[in-house]
Amino acid sequence: ATPEGSEEGPLTIPDASMSPDATKPSHWCSVAYWEHRTRVGRLYAVYDQAVSIFYDLPQGSGFCLGQLNLEQRSESVRRTRSKIGFGILLSKEPDGVWAYNRGEHPIFVNSPTLDAPGGRALVVRKVPPGYSIKVFDFERSGLLQHGPEPDAADGPYDPNSVRISFAKGWGPCYSRQFITSCPCWLEILLNNHR
């Protein structure tokens, strides 16, 4: 400690509220792209209220899956990648997160808020081209936080994530039991409830 009246004055702490990181808005979700069991590319952080996730570059911007490279690709992955096309529009709305299928083939969706309360079976919804679905319900998610975790035979359970497969379904009604058997799929990791 310095004696009173010294030239040094009080210790000042920098104001962290003015740092560049403090003014930058936080991302509301991150998107991971997978081919079977392999994640391709880095996590894509989403800051805007809506993001396009597509294969070919459209007019505008978003997450272009066609630009992600992988050394070895199976024929089933190549065929499915060619079906992604305009892909999906993912948007954060006041009531939850919505996915609009902009492609020419169905997408398949699984989310903790789509499952039946207390249900034991995995629920995978098929969304035809031109249709949308609320893939994550904020209010319902708050209620689920207090319930028991379901048995997740295909890996860790995350109550704040959504899985979307392009063109291929999975689950009890399909030959592919787990999403990791699907050629091309997305994992949407929601940041707002973490």
TrEMBL record:
Domain MH2 span(s) in chain numbering: 28-194
GO MF term set: I-SMAD binding; transcription regulator inhibitor activity
Alphabetized PANTHER family for the sequence: MOTHERS AGAINST DECAPENTAPLEGIC HOMOLOG 6, SMAD
Highest taxon in the source lineage: Eukaryota
Region (Disordered): 1-24
Gene Ontology CC, one term: heteromeric SMAD protein complex
Entries under InterPro entries matching the protein: Dwarfin, SMAD-like_dom_sf, SMAD_dom_Dwarfin-type, SMAD_FHA_dom_sf
PROSITE patterns listed in its UniProt record: MH2
Example GO biological process: anatomical structure morphogenesis
Keywords for this protein: Transcription, Transcription regulation, Ubl conjugation
Protein name: MH2 domain-containing protein
